[in-house]
Amino acid sequence: MTADEFRRMALNLKGAEERAHMNHPDFRVANRIFATLGYPDKEWGMVSLTPEQQAEFMHDEPEMFVPAAGAWGKKGSTTVRLSAAKKDALESALQAAWANAQAKPARKAKPAKKAKRAKKRARPRKAQR
Q1: pLDDT tens, position by position, for the chain (129 residues)?
Q2: Minimal CA–CA distance to 109: which of 53, 39, 30?
Q3: Sign of torsion, CA 9 10 16 21?
Q4: SS3 55
């Protein structure tokens, strides 16, 4: 499986769009990330599963699916080893992640951050006579 094949499969899901997050591509529906590419490096992808889904996919394809590090992995974030990826298994995982993102309330896109204005220093008051 190549990154381009992963990308095509993710973008074939209804309403999916590609953006970037933390300097790597992500795939969103309803403004929620359901998959990414390139983390921790170009040999990997990621799907946002539930912990129960993660356990099932890892049981069925242990060479392909690995929990992400730390708390993200405990919550279901699952990395996909592209070199071991099988089309049918990845398609099922992407569909599950897409459905999970769809099930959550849609997020509004965040507006661009405004530049912070420098705080004005309070002027010392003149002593009254």
Answers
A1: 999 999 999 999 999 999 998 889 999 999 999 999 998 899 999 999 999 999 999 999 999 999 999 999 999 999 999 999 999 999 999 999 999 999 876 656 655 555 455 555 555 566 665
A2: 30
A3: negative
A4: helix
Residue whose token pair is 């298994």: 89
Q: Per-residue DSSP letters for 23-42?
A: TEEEEEETTEEEEEESSSST
Domain 3-103 grouped into CATH 3.90.1150.30: yes
Burial 14-44 (b: 16+ CB within 10 A, else e): eebeeeeeeebbbbbbeebbbbbbbbeeeeb
The three-class DSSP label of residue 9 is helix
Global pTM value: 0.80
Which residue, chain included where needed, has tokens 């929620």?
A: 32
